[in-house]
Amino acid sequence: MGKEEHEVAVLGAPYNAAPMTSTVINIRSETSVPDHVVWSLFNTLFMNWCCLGFVAFAYSVKSRDRKMVGDVTGAQGYASTAKCLNICALVFGLLLTIGLIILFATGTVMSLQAMSQMLKRDGAVLTRIQGKNLLGHHSFLVAQREQPGHLDGPEANGVQVTSAP
């Protein structure tokens, strides 16, 4: 014990009279960089328009790999790119999905209108054909009056049809 006390006595007090300062460095054992893998996987499976979800998934995996190695800066860079790609994939996917729904809805309405017009036209022709078998020319004139401006049959060729007494 005497030797240790002697060394302390030899060193003595510090020669600099300035106050001592200390620096504290916090080292986190676990880095908290979000890698957005789940979001990227969702976009890959459900909103993969133009493969943006797949590219975001690739960047997310790269971010996770960088985080495992301990490269926090690289992990943050890849995570930021994955986040931007996920946002673009989500917005683009939603807009295209809504646009396709609107397109199919209007196409369905237009198709129904076209079928309705075809049924009206074909229904008048069908009435004209069935009426001719039963009642003669009278039903033909009635069918022509049901659709004004619709010329089909003898009137289309300039022949005037008159009913027989």
Automatic annotation (TrEMBL):
Location within or outside the cell? Membrane
Q: Which UniProt keywords apply?
A: Membrane, Transmembrane, Transmembrane helix
**Coiled-coil intervals, chain numbering:** none
Q: Which GO terms describe its biological process?
A: defense response to virus; host-mediated suppression of symbiont invasion; negative regulation of viral genome replication; response to interferon-alpha; response to interferon-beta; response to type II interferon; type I interferon-mediated signaling pathway
- Lineage, highest ranks first: Eukaryota, Metazoa, Chordata, Craniata, Vertebrata
Q: Choose one Gene Ontology CC annotation of this protein and give it.
A: plasma membrane
In which broad location class does this protein mainly occur, judging by the first location in its UniProt entry?
membrane
Instruction: Say which family it is in.
Output: Belongs to the CD225/Dispanin family.
Question: Among its keywords, does the record have Transmembrane helix?
Answer: yes
Q: Origin organism of this chain?
A: Orycteropus afer afer
Membrane spanning stretches: 37-59, 87-112
Task: Please state what the protein is called.
Answer: Interferon-induced transmembrane protein 1
Q: Which domain of life is it from?
A: Eukaryota
